[in-house]
Amino acid sequence: MEEKEQPTGGPYFVGKKDELIQAKRSFRTIEGRDILIIHHQGVFYALDSYCYHAGGELQHGDIEDLNGKLCIICPKHKYKITLAEGEGIYKATNPREKPPVPRWLSKGVKQRTHTVSENNNGDVYVKLSDVAGWIESDYYQGEKGKEARERA
Ligand code: FES
After folding, report:
1. Which end of the chain is least crowded, N or C, by CB within 10 Å?
2. Exposure string (b/e) for 109-131, b if CB count within 10 Å is 16 or more?
């Protein structure tokens, strides 16, 4: 009987550093999970490629520095997600504050992020997040989420 390989989370080879830098954004499927690898200002990031809100394709999002954190802006409804932590952030005012001053607030981690590493030969690897429990972007990696993305 053929033995199925057990998912381990990696690390998996995802490409040569030079190529990934040139591409800036690279899409990879690892253990059935669609991942976006981003190279921005000299740093690699990896996160689930579909936005936690409604499955928007983060691959096409702009990157901006918001409140000192690099964020990807989902092209679909402009939700902001920090690249390093996958935190959903938004700007709001407290009406009880006089005068109300808009401030950045966090919704907590909403997008699963993964670990990128490289070796001296310029090989880049991604290890899938092993954070236990549900993170909202998990939904768009499953069958139901896939159907929802296709319907949208
Ligand atoms: Fe990303 Fe709505 S799908 S902001």
Report:
1. N
2. bbbbbbbbeeeeeeebbbbbbee
Of all protein residues, whose CA lies closest to atom 4 belonging to ligand 1? 77
What spacing in Å lies between the alpha carbon of 43 and ligand 1's midpoint? Answer: 24
Question: Is there an atom of ligand 1 within 6 Å of 148 CB?
Answer: no
pLDDT per 10-residue tile (average), the chain, 152 residues: 73 98 97 97 98 97 97 98 98 90 96 98 97 96 88 81
CB 79 less than 6 A from any atom of ligand 1: yes
Domain 12-151 CATH (choose: 2.60.130.10, 3.40.50.300, 3.30.1330.80, 2.102.10.10): 2.102.10.10
- List the chain domain ranges: 12-151
Residue 72: CB within 6 Å of ligand 1? no
Quote the ipTM score: 0.99
